[in-house]
Write a structure and sequence with these properties.
This is ER-bound oxygenase mpaB/mpaB'/Rubber oxygenase catalytic domain-containing protein. This protein is mainly alpha-helical. The chain is built from 13 helices and 4 strands.
Length: about 325
């Protein structure tokens, strides 16, 4: 298994590390499909590390979309990731370029508690922090979701797989690129946690709202949403609690310390149960259920390609010499 850099890429180009997906170790192949796992939703609040960076919190707060329905925003973010992770090459690059273009508008000064905070989404530190939050999120949840432990070499390769997919989101310029190795990524992530992250009102608010998750509007017709509202109001405290326990159990300790969440013995015991359930689901349930639609489409495409390949001849030479 090799990872190589594109020799034709200029400094201003997005780096395009090439990963041979046909030659991945079994554990790393499982990590690759984890990038398209719906089970990752149980760890959605692990992305709260993003808004522990105050300019990011100011920018997200300014849009008002979290206050309106932050589950909808989470669904949009997750679907955007899936387009970049699992789309064909044209879809991936077109959508990545569109994201960068649209984020040019995300700049200015915050409001209320962030009135003194200036932000620009295309600031390389802020932009890369969002990308690294996603990559670290997938790495930190892999064992909890699947029960598979990665060796240090496999972890490095898993990082390369995630970087190969999400690296197209990198901003132009050599200094704006994502860290090339997992060791570099961890050092960079830890330095941002230690030097840049701060407790802030927005982080407090979204953490508190976890047990009051709003019913999403995306994909739900108004009448269906009205019908689902009463049962949702009953189950959302439990659903939010499960997400909170799972998310904060895998969160970087330095980020968790910035919140009011403290995990005691009861929560640690709960998390062991949730892990067992998730790992059983990963092993036993059909891929159609545990993978997102785009990831499952790629899964089926690859399996069909293997089937067609298996009936091909190894040689076109005559079977019996004339």
């Amino acid at each position: 298994m090799t990872v190589t850099e594109n020799p034709d890429a200029s400094i201003a180009d997005t780096p395009t590390p090439t990963v041979d997906l046909a030659d991945l170790p079994p554990a790393v192949e499982q990590f690759r499909w984890h990038l398209g796992s719906v089970l990752f939703g149980f760890f959605g609040a692990s992305f709260f590390d993003q808004v522990a960076l105050v300019p990011v919190a100011a920018a997200v707060d300014r849009t008002g979309r979290f206050a309106e329905n932050f589950v909808d925003r989470g669904l949009r973010s997750f679907s955007a990731e899936q387009l970049v992770l699992w789309g064909d090459e044209r879809t991936r690059h077109t959508f990545a370029d569109r994201l960068k273009f649209l984020h040019r508008e995300v700049r200015g000064t915050g409001r209320d508690d962030f009135a003194e905070t200036r932000y620009s989404a295309l600031d390389p530190t802020l932009w890369n922090w969002i990308a690294m939050s996603a990559i670290m999120g997938y790495l930190n949840t892999f064992t909890a979701c699947t029960g598979i432990e990665l060796s240090p070499e496999e972890e490095e390769l898993a990082y390369a797989v995630a970087l190969e997919r999400l690296g197209i989101l990198s901003l132009p310029g050599k200094s704006a690129q994502l860290p090339p190795t997992l060791a570099d990524a961890r050092r960079w992530y830890d330095s941002v946690v230690d030097e840049r992250l701060q407790p802030n009102p927005f982080l407090d608010a979204v953490t508190e709202q976890l047990t009051r998750l709003p019913l999403p509007t995306i994909g739900l017709p108004p009448l269906v949403r009205i019908a689902l509202t009463p049962p949702w109001l009953m189950i959302r405290p439990l659903a939010g609690h499960v997400v909170k326990v799972c998310s904060f159990s895998v969160m970087h300790p330095g980020v968790r310390e910035l919140t009011s969440v403290r995990l005691g013995r009861r929560e640690q015991w709960e998390f062991r149960i949730y892990q067992r359930l998730l790992q059983t689901a990963w092993r036993r349930l059909p891929r159609r259920i545990v993978l997102t639609p785009m990831a499952y489409h790629e899964y089926r495409r690859e399996r069909l390609a293997q089937t067609y390949h298996s009936i091909q001849l190894e040689s076109f030479a005559p079977e019996c010499p004339v």
